[in-house]
Design goal:
Helix content: 25-40%
Strand content: 15-25%
Shape: elongated
Number of strands: 17
CATH topology of the largest domain: Rossmann fold
Bound molecules: adenosine monophosphate
CATH class of the largest domain: Alpha Beta
Oligomer: single chain
Mean pLDDT: 96
Number of domains: 2
Largest sheet: 6 strands, parallel
Length: 397
């Protein structure tokens, strides 16, 4: 098992804990409109404060070019206080005199939120002087922001080289789930990769064919594979210039012993809109005016039968244009099957990526999956097999 240093290995009592969290929450008119990310890190904040640690929250917000009141973390800090039901102080800078004075005033169990780390250029540059200025404020660094772990920034990675570094509880749960899904999975392991385009997921497909036993491909990207196999896809979304790449992926899968499952039938329509008249056809019978907008009933049956014979599933991307009914059917039915198998203890199911989370939420199954990662870029880079700097720095040496 890969081992990461966690909060179980450190006595936080009386210590100044620099806790990197993801507070990049959606705002509407100066107010937090979705507090999911805050709720996810609340247990780590409460645990450290409860044990008498001094919790110093570090986070970025938006993409400011320098200090910008519009991208202040102040209203977000107020929302953190609301979610955890405790007082959260705020410092108007994340380094320097203001931050130092605010930290010096803290008592064990206090919580302080520092201003947006991206107000300083040194954050994204991972500048040693900026890292040192942050490090001065803490005794240890705890990273609870998996979603920012694909970036080697000062607060997401640099600090791990200056201070004793530990994974927070949310990071720990994410790493446990991801390890169970791809690094040390129970076999057989299947992957579902769907979504719009092959071009955005080339590295991901290349990594998966080498790691999983069955790869099920859906969504617009399946059309590129069908096209490469000489099938007509009419007006469907497809990347005609990537036919050779698709064939390479199929050849690599064969060499690695990875079974590829492509749609055998499709739900086609002539308009890209909800409730457009549609029909299910074999992938050999797609007409010139047709658009493939979802996988068809026989393909769904096949996907469900694969799920029933595997022990682990990792999922990124919908099977069809799930935002438009009835073209969400393939995604919803596969998601329901995976959720049921998971609830029955027969499947470990891990899913992630922006649209995937939205699709699983729409299907009402997210809470029955083993783990649904809300980290977009970091989840995809992990699926691509890339080391994540903010995770690597937490590895036990
Ligand atoms: P991605 O962000 O790559 O996971 O892609 C998700 C998007 O792919 C969603 O907006 C879907 O509507 C879209 N999509 C999935 N299947 C199809 C399809 N067959 N035709 C057009 N768009 C699709």
């Amino acid at each position: 098992m890969p081992t990461f240093r966690t909060l179980d290995q450190v006595e936080v009592k009386g210590k100044r804990v620099l806790l990197r969290v993801d507070l990049n929450v959606p705002m509407d008119n100066g107010r937090v409109s979705d507090a999911t990310r805050i709720e996810r890190v609340a247990p780590t904040i409460a645990e450290i404060a409860g044990k008498g640690g001094k919790v110093i929250l570090l986070a970025h917000f938006g993409r400011p070019k320098g200090p910008d009141p519009k991208e202040s973390l102040k209203p977000v800090a107020a929302e953190v206080a609301k979610v955890i039901g405790r007082k959260v102080a705020f410092a108007e800078d994340c380094i320097g005199e203001k931050a130092e004075a605010a930290v010096a005033a803290m008592k064990p169990g206090d919580i302080l939120c520092l201003e947006n780390t991206r107000f300083h250029k040194g954050e994204e540059k991972n500048d040693p002087a900026f890292v040192a200025a942050l490090a001065k404020l803490g005794d240890i660094w705890v990273n609870d922001a998996f979603s920012a772990a694909h970036r080697a920034h000062a607060s997401t990675e640099g600090l791990g080289h200056k201070l004793p570094a530990y994974a927070g509880r949310t990071m720990q749960a994410e790493l446990d789930a991801l390890t169970k899904a791809l690094e040390a999975p129970q076999r057989p392991v299947a992957a579902i990769v769907g979504g719009a385009k092959v071009s955005t997921k080339l590295e991901l497909l290349g990594n998966l064919v080498a790691k999983v036993d069955v790869l099920m491909i859906g969504g617009g990207m399946a059309n590129t594979f069908l096209l490469a196999q000489g099938k007509a896809v009419g007006k469907s979304l497809a990347e005609r210039d990537l036919a050779a790449t698709a064939l390479d992926i199929l050849a690599k899968a064969k060499a690695k012993g990875c079974e590829i499952v492509l749609p055998v039938d499709a739900l086609v329509a002539q308009k890209f809109e909800a409730h457009a008249p549609s029909r299910a056809v074999s992938v050999d019978e797609v007409g010139a005016a047709d658009m493939i907008l979802d996988i068809g009933p026989r393909s769904i049956e096949h996907v469900v039968s694969v799920l029933a014979r595997v022990k682990t599933l990792v999922w990124n991307g919908p099977f069809g244009a799930f935002e438009l009914e009835p073209f969400d059917t393939g995604t919803v039915e596969a998601a329901e099957a995976a959720a049921e198998l998971t609830a029955a203890g027969k499947l470990v199911s891990v899913a992630g990526g922006g649209d995937t989370v939205a699709a699983l939420n729409a299907a009402g199954v997210a809470d029955r999956f083993t783990y649904v990662s809300t980290a977009g870029g970091a989840f995809l880079e992990w699926m691509e097999g890339k080391p994540l700097p903010g995770v690597e720095v937490l590895r036990q040496k």
